[in-house]
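Chain A, query sequence.
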Amino acid sequence: MSEVTWLTQEAYDRLQAELDHLSGPGRTEITARIAAARAEGDLKENGGYHAAKDEQGKMEARIRQLTQILREAKVGQPDGAIAGVAGPGMVVTVAFADGDEETFLIGSREEAAVSDITVYSAQSPLGVALTGAKPGDSVTYAAPNGRDITVTLTDVKPYGA
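Chain A, predicted structure.
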């Protein structure tokens, strides 16, 4: 089962424009570069040809990735995005035990390109731990190094509010 990716309209439009470019003019450009490099002769020692083929492979992978993201994307906020409850589409502020605070969006990394705010995935350990929490709640999650970290949720508001 696939995960729904929540995107703002701006992020959706940006990804759609990137997909349109890569699958249209981008493919035409790379095909022309490959043909030009092929015309130079011996393909075994043709660095331009191999570089263009590598770039074509990366571009096709990005096209597949964008197609999947856009197919599974929902524009707006999740149905459960209730003010005061942490989850996808919400900007949260957490306090760490040492007194440091951090504010970030629980959402898709695709939002990071169109936002000045730090974005944590809802599937990340911290995102999972915070989902459903309310201000004042303390949650514990496992950091990548294996340590358990406890944070206290201090504020929750919808993204863009």
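The chain has four helices and seven strands. The radius of gyration is 21 Å.
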